[in-house]
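Internal tracking record. Fields below are filled automatically when a chain is submitted to the structure queue. Please do not edit lines marked as system-generated. If the sequence contains nonstandard residues, flag them in the REMARKS field before resubmitting.
Queue: standard
Priority: normal
Entity type: single polypeptide chain
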Amino acid sequence: MSGLARYFLAHKWAVSGSDAAVGIMTQELVKDGVAVKIGHKKGNIPAGTRLVIYNRAIPADNPELMAAEKLARATRAGGKGMVVLPYSKALGRITEDYQTIAITGSHGKSTTTALAGLALMRAGLDPTILVGTKMPDLGGKNIRMGHGPYLVLEADDFHAAFLDYSPAIAIVTNIDREHMDFYKTFANAKHAFLKFLSRTRPGGVLILNRDDAPLHSLRAAIARIAKKRKLKVVWFSTRGAGIGAGGARAAGNGGTAMARKIKKIIPISGAHNVSNAMAVLELGKILKIPEKKILAAIGSYKGAWRRMELKGAFEMPKTKSEKKVRSQFSNIPVYDDYAHHPTEIKATLAAFREKFPRSLLFCIFQPHQAKRLNILFKDFISAFDAADIVFILPVYAVRGRDEKFAHDSAALVKVMQKRSPRKPVFYLEHPQHIRSAVETIVQNMRPDKRLSRSPVIIMMGAGDISDLTGKLL
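SYSTEM-GENERATED OUTPUT FOLLOWS
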């Protein structure tokens, strides 16, 4: 939503909007020139408004949305024509104005979109980029306004938003059991991804991850879509040559070798990020960007907001009984990460383990949305295996999408403790006590030679856990 607000600002629209609470994004939008109201009220809509765009997470009985729809009906009758659109439909109309490269998947969308945008910039194609996170490479913004024909877009699968887009090139990183509160079944989710691929313009290109089993299982249906719409299909892989399906071509003979080359140059850890970069390499081939420029773009990537983002250092205070604090506990790095799905948690912790093979990993996790926690409860139990010490916070309640369920954070901790009784797993009922809790654990670690490895702290989740990082630091 913030990226779209900036898009309209760049096109000289007067932009206002509202959010439920003050946050980093709302504060930045105010600096950019957006008139931001806190709280949703019918009086927030300025006179003369021509277009109202809302997030699909907003419930139908939201007073501001109801007022907007009432005004739209009245202005239509009066011939003034105010329009009310969900985010995806507004963005869908914009995709028709570009050669849109839409990048989707249950995981990895933001990183892949960022890398793809950088590759097109490096090639001098001057793309417009709209991504779901802030990027240092874009001056800390989530949008870049270009003058070239390409729009590099993170295509959201939430509420099947991507079905409103019209891409010339579609990239899918993976398909997982995500947003099950909307899709209900995994079969429905996979069907939505197929419908998204069928939205690709005739003569376009599909770039797909062969290593993802759920996606690759749809290859026959994808081949039928490709044949009907005359699409070129590219299956990429980090484990060898891609296998074509119905008009597809192989992704080359050196998938494994190229993955090794990417791993050496990409500044972010994790096998999943190597896979994301492989998708961008295939995109570059389609656009005839020299491989050297694509690899240079990948190698120059500065990361993204809340994606393994280093926030600062946790300084352990000295106590009167200690004459000297061991150096490994005096400057503990603190990272912030957006992972909130079990698959993302596993992949992110594996990446941290790769980055810090000898460190003690603290994972402080805030579950996001009670329904997700309950639907994927069994998967969450083993999601933190790569962490050495785990804190689970209360569930972050999503306005309009949450209710009470059988399993909460305390229940998750109990099951995790029973499964791994020797592993330190804690429920932190009062997150505001985060610093004292971490201090207590680190303090008790010091005399124990078995736990003498230098720690790393990972703040993880899609809610407001990033606000706690300041308390920790």
